[in-house]
Specification:
By secondary structure, the chain is of the alpha/beta class. It has 25 helices and 27 strands. Strands 5, 6, 7, 8, 9, 10 and 11 form a seven-stranded mixed sheet that branches. The protein has a six-stranded mixed sheet with strand order 15-14-16-26-17-27, with helices on both faces. Strand 14, helix 15 and strand 15 form a beta-alpha-beta unit. The protein binds 2-acetamido-2-deoxy-beta-D-glucopyranose (NAG) (5 copies). One 2-acetamido-2-deoxy-beta-D-glucopyranose (NAG) binds next to loops.
């Protein structure tokens, strides 16, 4: 690293001493800059932050997980400033974070980063002055298209705003909000080419495309995909110049370049086209200052109020020559992505005032929705989850995810499942351990799946682990042995018992009672069943403060301690143990060698079952419209804030408040609908979700657990249990 520094900066090691302003929150009054490590040029933090320290610059770096994390740090006063996009500013405003805009970071010499204009084919311009609506009604629209992975051509919010300036709003309660917009668009325009996925899951998209065919009729290919000739910022210009469409929205830069460069083409002479203004008037394409529909401002430096003057002074003190300086100013300019002198605010402005100068931008974020307002209520299980959910909701709303998430909190997962069942809330998330209860006892269905790479240590798996030096080699050897399950009624419980039923030709009752020598199935002790039964299923459990320890770590710990012969846990947990990543006394103390026992029908992957990392549950009786709406919202959030997108505003799967796996698992790469279960990739045997069928006997200790569900079979089982315990 040192050598790369030298490479970049030459050999100048001259120190510059700046008089400290002292108003920062860092050591000695240093100003603290919050940076998102993965945003911007590669490893810029690692390379340039040390220079700030070495040269006594009065500035120090703090690495944030994402832009929202930096905003939270500013609001907690642990950092002083950072560079933010105008969308981040909207979020800061909505979250009521008290910050000021001190400088604007322009990458080019013009007042706005982007300006959106409308171009029409002159053939639709009426002879006499007309309203915008009458100019455009029943014309053909070359839509900029949809790209779920970037905000170019336009973010959904900006795109919806532009549409709203022309279209009447429809609020049919029987249709999703997205479909309402499509319906309105298709009834206003004669035809359009709006290529790209309208909703980010394939089934839903196909249904909508089929229903609103006119919105694809102007595309080069009826498939209406992102690959279409008329998709995107250049595609819609092509759609205009081919004479296919009458009107478009696009970036002023793109319009100027396109029509400027192609002047030689006769059909493209400016005479055929004109700018359309928001009042319905038109302007010649050769005008230098065309009427603009919407400006998107430049990124800005924002600072907490107390540090704003010092930050402004610092950023405004740069001279052109500093950008090529080998010292801390050059490093800071690089970190702030400053390529020319910033525009200083005097005095620093509050975000709303700053944004007000950009025509249309603020208005785009205050569009009124349908009445009554719609939400997707999401049940969370802790305050931390609720807070993360609130930020996710806000970030989503900024980018036009609609209806917005509304986050509520309940005491635990059972209360959340109950709340979804009763219709109080729409969705809740849960680990694979609640799959059976959710579907059997609460009448819920998994709607969204947390998908990981098909790697044994990232998916959720159930394996039978034993000590390496034990004589146990095959599943049948486990008969009569002592077993620890992470949870009663969880995925390991059902996978193992199903396996034993299948391979040993036993029924549920026989697999539960008497197959193993001893069983610990944590959770049983909380049920309203006989003391004998509780005793039977918690004989060798580990107690801590008189409470039975549950979960994968407890099971593994019992195995390591020699308390049981087999623990049914995931490969992920064992791999953490083997790599000494479990920060508990029993795990740090020397490593006990373990091995999995592979079932004979799964010798390669060795798992008794595997599943996705988590699920979002909704009621089985949910209306298809609502189901589509929920699916759209989650898949959209995944596209915006999941693994693929690089805007850095919010990371759904990243650390939150220094903690992993809050609300979503860290290993999740994408969210999917149940279609994922039909994918060809699923060559690994024993998927748990696909075999989920609890219309019959599902190996319960008793029938006295919660709510509804299928009682018949379990009642039968209960009788068995009672008879069995009586005659023991
Ligand atoms: C809309 O435009 C199409 C083609 O330009 C035309 O055939 C149709 O009659 C128009 N419809 C109305 C209602 O004006
Ligand atoms: C634009 O073109 C028109 C003719 O099409 C011409 O009359 C006018 O002077 C031009 N304006 C500019 C600013 O070049
Ligand atoms: C436990 O079960 C018994 C018998 O079914 C019932 O009478 C009792 O009310 C239950 N207790 C609780 C706390 O649910
Ligand atoms: C979290 O996920 C990322 C990306 O998959 C991975 O690189 C990282 O190692 C994970 N962190 C932990 C602690 O599992
Ligand atoms: C579930 O299992 C029952 C009993 O074995 C069977 O009749 C039913 O068809 C199965 N349902 C599904 C969806 O597989």
């Amino acid at each position: 690293m040192k050598s790369s520094l030298l490479f970049i900066f030459g050999f100048c090691v001259q120190f510059v001493h700046l008089q400290k302003t002292g108003s920062g929150s860092g050591s000695g009054g240093n100003l603290r800059l919050c940076l998102v490590a993965e945003r911007g040029p590669l490893r810029r933090g690692e390379t340039f932050c040390p220079i700030l320290d070495e040269e006594d610059s009065g500035v120090e770096c703090v690495l944030g997980v994402d832009q929202m994390d930096c905003l939270r740090r500013i609001s907690k006063s642990t950092v002083d400033f950072g560079v933010f996009s105008p969308e981040d500013l909207i979020a800061a405003q909505w979250a009521n974070i008290d910050v000021l805009v001190t400088n604007e970071i322009r990458l080019r010499r013009r007042p706005y980063e982007r300006s959106i204009v409308s171009v029409v084919n002159r053939r639709i311009i009426p002879k006499y002055d007309s309203s915008l609506e009458s100019v455009l009604r029943n014309t053909t629209l070359c839509h900029p298209g949809v790209d779920p992975y970037t905000i170019r051509p336009l973010s959904d919010t900006l795109s919806h705003y532009l549409e709203s300036l022309v279209l009447p709003r429809t609020c049919d309660p029987k249709l999703t909000l997205e479909e309402n917009r499509l319906k309105s668009l298709s009834s206003f325009f004669y035809q359009a080419c709006k290529a790209g996925p309208w909703v980010p899951f394939r089934d839903g998209d196909a249904i909508l495309k089929n229903k609103y065919k006119s919105l694809c009729a102007a595309c080069a290919n009826p498939n209406c995909e992102m690959q279409d000739k008329y998709w995107g910022p250049i595609g819609n210009l092509q759609c205009m110049s081919d004479g296919v469409g009458d009107v478009m929205w696009g970036d002023l830069d793109d319009v100027k370049t396109y029509f400027g460069v192609s002047k030689t083409d006769i059909s493209l002479t400016n005479n055929n086209f004109a700018y359309l203004c928001r009042d319905g008037s038109t302007q010649s394409l050769n005008t230098t200052e065309p009427c603009v529909w919407l400006h998107r401002p430049w990124p800005v430096v924002i600072a907490k109020r107390k540090a704003a003057a010092a930050v402004n002074e610092l950023i405004s003190s740069f001279a052109e020559t500093d950008f090529f300086d080998n010292h801390w100013k050059g490093a800071l300019a690089y970190l702030l992505e400053m390529r020319q002198l910033s525009t200083s605010m005097h005095p620093a402005k509050n975000p709303l005032d700053y944004l007000a100068s950009a025509e249309g931008f603020r208005e785009a974020y205050s569009q009124s929705g349908c009445d009554p307002p719609r939400h997707i209520t999401f049940c969370t299980k802790s305050l931390l989850e609720k807070n993360k959910c609130d930020w996710l909701s806000e970030a989503g709303a900024v980018y036009g995810v609609n209806p917005p998430l509304q986050c509520v909190v309940r005491r635990d997962v059972a209360e959340c499942l109950r709340a979804v069942e009763s219709g109080e809330v729409d969705v809740t998330g849960g680990s694979p351990d609640v799959l059976v209860q959710a579907t059997r006892d609460y009448n819920l269905q998994p709607l969204i799946y947390e998908v990981t790479p098909l790697s044994q240590t990232q998916m959720n798996t159930v394996l039978a682990y034993v000590k390496k030096d034990s004589m146990l080699d095959k599943m049948a050897d486990l008969r009569g042995k002592r077993a620890y399950f992470p949870n009663y009624d969880g995925i390991a419980w059902h996978s193992v018992l199903n396996y034993i039923k299948r391979s040993e030709n036993l029924n549920c009752f026989e697999s539960m009672h008497g197959y193993f020598g001893e069983i610990c199935a944590p959770g049983v002790e909380k049920m309203n069943i006989t003391a004998n039964l509780v005793e039977e299923f918690s004989r060798n459990c580990i107690l801590s403060d008189g409470k039975v320890l549950s979960g994968e770590l407890a099971a593994l710990r019992a195995l390591v301690a020699g308390r049981v012969d087999v623990a049914f846990v995931s490969m992920n947990t064992v791999s953490k143990y083997e790599n000494k990543l479990i920060n508990e006394l029993w795990a740090i103390d020397g490593t006990v060698a373990l091995k999995p026992i592979c079932p004979k029908d799964n010798p390669v992957h060795c798992a008794l079952s595997w599943s996705h990392l988590g699920h979002m549950y909704a009621s089985k009786t949910i209306k298809p419209m609502r189901r589509d709406e929920i699916t759209t919202v989650f898949t959209q959030l995944d596209k915006l804030f999941g693994r693929h997108y690089a805007n850095g505003m919010f990371k759904m799967y990243g650390l939150y408040n220094h903690e992993l796996d809050i609300l979503f698992n860290n290993n999740t790469v994408t969210l999917s609908t149940k279609d994922i279960l039909n994918s060809d990739l699923y060559i690994i045997p024993f998927n748990f979700e696909r075999s989920l069928n609890f219309t019959h006997d599902s190996c319960q200790v008793s029938d006295t657990t919660a709510a509804s569900g299928s009682r018949m079979a379990s009642t039968f089982l209960l009788l068995y249990v009672v008879v069995y315990t009586l005659f023991r």
